[in-house]
Design a protein that fits this description.
- There is one protein chain.
- The protein has about 400 residues and is α+β, with helices and mostly antiparallel strands.
- It has 2 domains: about 180 residues, no CATH class; about 180 residues, no CATH class.
- It has 13 helices and 12 strands.
- Helix 9 packs antiparallel against helix 11 and helix 9 runs parallel beside helix 12.
- It is elongated, with a radius of gyration of 32 Å.
């Protein structure tokens, strides 16, 4: 075996260009397969973290219909209506079993100004319970209080990015004034950094104010976008959805009509995101399989050429006592070495690629040694399979045919 290894290494060293070309396809296959699977796993973990950002046991009822893009897992709202009210939210909180707390809300995009600086923000008008339901708390100052809601106070809490854009440093924001709807609002807090949730909303770009202030002093409206409800850990989601749908359909007089609302849980969003990521993994596996197939064909082609070019070497080895089994083992070893080396370099390169992608996209870094070793083992097996035919052809070469040529 040691002799076969020395001969194989010497042969590959003597035919460097051919060996490199044979390795290239396997290298690309291992790079794409290992890289895509690791990135997909990182995206899974990121999606799980985003689901946690929605809040513990979150359940949301929203006006209009929510449509999810399965290719990206992002949400789009359509069929918006203006008949979702605070009494609807209160009816859900009081009529659905397992509700621990609720916070109605309105959300809309509008400009906010401080001095000569104006930025666009997502206004989110809500109740104090929002911070507990969404697990989202102020880092500086405080959140809106029940007293602020009752008195319709003109106060706001800024998302971290909004505070940075308006005041440079979030620490400088608390106690300052901003202008919304041409009215002055006092900044009473800055929220912690949170990032995007599963609906695609950047929670650091939001500005919070009392719901009563928005509905009566800003927009003079009696409708909201929806309500967030916090459920008990043992709540049956199917029963919660059924009860919520029944309540809203009755209150909105929807007999014989389609729902004009959407009911969403963190688990629903997570499942849709997983479906999108499953598609990414499948497409990556298909692409990697094609690359591996090209790599296998490259090894097969080059090994066939090497057999023809080394007929004299094979004949001499047979003449000095080498058996057909020795010849087969030698060429299989060469094919396995080429494929294994290409796979090893591809797997190693994918580790750096995954690190770069995770750093740029903000995903948690994932390294699966079993997956990496599996990629390497699959590369070696591919090389052995591709080298089987050339090895048999080499073993069939007769000593007399070589010596008489």
């Amino acid at each position: 075996m040691l002799l076969d290894l020395k001969i194989a290494l010497a042969s590959l060293s003597a035919h460097k260009l051919r060996a490199v070309l044979a390795m290239l396809g396997v290298f690309l296959g291992a790079l794409s397969f290992n890289g895509v699977q690791h990135v997909a796993e990182a995206m899974y973990k990121n999606a799980e973290a985003e689901a946690a950002k929605l809040g513990p046991n979150l359940f949301a009822a929203m006006a209009g219909q929510v449509r999810f893009n399965k290719a990206s897992g992002s949400a789009r709202f359509s069929g918006f209506v203006r008949n979702f009210t605070i009494p609807d939210a209160e009816a859900l909180a009081g009529g659905v079993a397992g509700v621990l707390g609720f916070a109605p809300y309105f959300s809309g995009t509008m400009p906010i100004r401080s001095g000569s600086t104006t930025v666009t923000t997502q206004i989110l008008a809500t109740w104090p319970k929002y911070v507990d339901i969404r697990s989202f708390r102020p880092e500086l100052g405080r959140f809106i209080s029940q007293q602020d809601v009752d008195a319709k106070e003109k106060v706001v809490v800024l998302g971290r990015k909004i505070a940075e854009r308006l005041f440079g440093r979030p620490e400088s924001a608390v106690g300052r004034e901003v202008h919304i709807f041409r009215a002055r609002f006092m900044v009473i807090g800055v929220m912690e950094a949170k990032g995007r949730d599963l609906t695609g909303a950047d929670q650091d770009e939001q500005t919070f104010m009392p719901l009563s202030t928005y509905m009566r002093r800003a927009a003079n409206q009696n409708w909201i976008n929806g309500v967030y409800l916090q459920l008990a850990e043992d709540a049956d989601l199917d029963k919660v959805k059924a009860a919520s749908a029944a309540i809203l359909r009755q209150r909105h007089h929807l007999d014989g009509k389609k729902d004009d609302f959407s009911l969403l849980t963190a688990a629903d969003s997570m499942q849709l995101r997983r479906e999108a990521l499953d598609l990414v993994q499948t497409l990556g596996a298909i692409t990697s399989t094609i690359s591996f197939a090209v790599g296998g064909m490259g090894i097969l082609s080059i090994m066939v050429l090497m057999v023809q070019a080394r007929r004299m070497e094979i004949g001499i080895r047979r003449a000095v006592g080498g058996s057909r089994r020795d010849i087969i083992r030698q060429f299989l070893l060469e094919a396995g070495l080429m494929a294994g080396t290409g796979g090893a370099f591809g797997a190693a390169a994918s580790v750096g690629l995954v690190q770069a992608v995770c750093a740029l996209a903000g995903f948690p870094y994932v390294f699966d040694p079993v997956l990496t070793l599996g990629t390497l083992g699959g590369s070696v097996l591919l090389g052995l399979a591709a080298g089987a035919y050339p090895a048999r052809q080499a073993a069939r070469i007769e000593i007399l045919d070589v010596l008489s040529a």
